[in-house]
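Recall that a protein's primary structure is simply its ordered list of amino acids. Everything else, from secondary elements to tertiary packing, is in principle encoded there. The following example makes that idea concrete.
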Amino acid sequence: MLQVLGLCLSVLGLSVLIGCGSPKETEVIDPLSVGSDKPRIALVMKSLANEFFVNMASGARAHNEANANSYELVINGIRNESDLAQQVALVDQMIGIGVDAIVIAPADSKALVPALYRAVNAGIVVINIDNRLEPEVLLDYQIQIPFIGPNNRSGAKLVGDYALKHLGADSQVAILEGIPSANNSIQRRTGFEEAARAADMEIVSLQSGEWDQAKAAQITSGLLSQFPELDAILAANDNMALGAASAIGMAGLDRTITIAGFDNISAIHPLIESGAIVATVDQFGDQLAVFGIEYALDALERDMQLDDKETRLELITIGSLTTAKK
């Protein structure tokens, strides 16, 4: 029996590690077959407490089950979005067990680069998904890591435009961003700011909810007191949109505050249907890891130039949810 100091889930024969503690504490978990001649792919994600990354893991798992003869897969996640040290430790652990490729959704766009530099120098193919690594830092380390993912700025502008279009000019808007140093948080914040400026609205608050529902709820409670005329909250992910909606619901307001999110997790659908949240953006998280895995397999099979690839986005509203149910 393995003694596990982290949280380890074995789902359909595939180990999923939620890292905690030091690398030594997690080295007991090695689901990869010893002596296998199949490529070994490691998926390193952010928090598996976030439904978006649970969906990402499920998509990767389904792809692996359908292609079990082609490659082996180990899935890793951290306890919370801000646990950068543990994600670095997981990358080092994957280097240590000798994976052939790492597909990573980095918790931070800069802090993970040194660990990924070590991976590249060890001959491991590295594919960046979800949150883009900072190009200038990659240049400093003289490595090229391709990014596969959506245009987060365009997605935020898309949902921001939709959310604000029925509000009057000079309406008050608050933005809940993710971890400030994460590229996807920066890009979504920028898209929201562009939407607010285009609608001639005032951004009265920009605060980091760190992608977390509880923190977003706490911030929103403060916003309601500080800005009693607040008209809209643009949240950089659905977890924070859910937190904002919860705080507004608890406040028992006699007016509506427009809320928009980003990610299209299933938990947000009932709130879109009820009108508590007006829209979100689907970035097809269940397929992002699959895109990265397939790109990594291509790179392992043949010498090729690894270029960035932009993936699609879709605005999700009550109309699109209603249509999908028909």
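The CA atoms of residues 146 and 168 lie 41 Å apart. The longest strand covers residues 40-47.
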